[in-house]
Amino acid sequence: MRTKAVASTALLTLGLTACGAEIAPREAGTASAHYPVTVTNCGERHTFPRKPARVVTNDVNITELTLSLGLADRMAGYVMPDDKGRVDRVAWKDGYQQTTWLSRKVLTKEIALDARADLVFAGWHYGFDEGSGVTPQAFRDLGIDSYVLSESCRSGSSGERGVMDPLDALYTDLANLGEIFDVEDRAARLIAESRAKIDAVPQRGHRPSVFLYDSGQDKPYTAGKFAAANAVIARAGGTNIMGDLADTWVTAGWESVVERDPEVIVINSYATPSAEEKRAFLKSFPPLANVSAIRNDRILVMDYVDLVESPRNPAAISTLADFLRTVPAG
After folding, report:
1. pLDDT exceeds 80 at position 155
2. Which of the residues 9, 77, 86, 89 could staple to 102 if both were Cys, CB 3.0 to 4.6 A apart?
3. CB 45: neighbour CB atoms within 10 A?
């Protein structure tokens, strides 16, 4: 999403099936017995006849979902702008050097074809776009499989997105990728580590109200109830003031922000405008002058990849929780 822009065999099988992956029967003693494998992606069953070997990923969060499972050797490359966000701090940082940066612009069918891709991993508003014709079906028509980021799944005719809790979407995608690439052990481990880290975040009675500011001056672009940012805020011990909006990333009104008087503002940081420019705008915008977060200078900058579905979500929850604990109750 760009705005103007991981026991026993039985337990492991149960855990992955619960996350949306279905395990195909295996034949003992054969290296390829894992395939074909069928997973459920955005409510649709999709069968992969073999392990993908030339994957193209779009955007930093989707790329890192793939890299976090140690799949750089299965990637043809990735598409993303220059703003990966503190790559040196992630355990899978070396994966970036093991694959190819295909484009700093938008995902296109030509990029996938030139890379001889056999799978495109993207999402609605994370590369897939009906307006441009870059859709899962368009790639399938070219003989290229697709996998859709679960946070971006669409539900209903209204165009709303999100068919599950965003963190469940994260675990679902990790489990599904584990099945698709036959790395279930890695996926199960990463899911367990992520759950443990989130469960370890202490909670308190007071849940500070939080406004997520992505961009926009005439009207703010922010996170609704189906956005990963909403789950990050909630698991960190806060309350998203726009959590009643039934969408992922959505335009709201400044009047609503003022009325709901957030105690904390989280700035979504990516290429342009810069986080510094966003902070300067918020602090100088007259309608916000009496909002609690502005009066008390409680503004936290977080990287884009922290706030969309990605393997960085658990660390982001811990970071935000530490900040929210500085907000006095009452």
Report:
1. no
2. 77
3. 9
Polymer length in residues for the chain:
330
* Residue 30 CB neighbour total at 10 angstroms: 8
Q: Is residue 2 part of a domain?
A: no
Alpha-carbon distance of 155 to 93, in angstroms, equals 34
Q: Report the candidate in 292, 226, 283 with the shortest Cα–Cα distance to residue 262.
A: 292
Cα of first residue to Cα of last residue in the chain, in angstroms, is 35
CATH (domain of 84): 3.40.50.1980
Domain ends where: 199, 220, 254? 199
**Count of structural domains within the chain:** 2
Nearest CA-CA partner of 58 in 108, 116, 118: 108
**Is 286 within the bounds of a domain?**
yes
Residues 188-242: pLDDT tens digits?
A: 999 999 999 999 999 888 999 999 999 999 999 999 988 999 999 999 999 999 9
Q: b/e for 75-93, b at 16 or more Cβ within 10 A?
A: bbbbbbbebbbeeeebebe
pLDDT (average), residues 122-150? 95
Q: How far apart are CA 310 and CA 199, in angstroms?
A: 17
Is residue 271 within 8 A of residue 83, CB to CB? The reply is yes
Tokens 């996350």 locate to 19
52: in domain:
yes
In a shared domain, residues 190 and 224? no
Residue 204 located in a structural domain: no
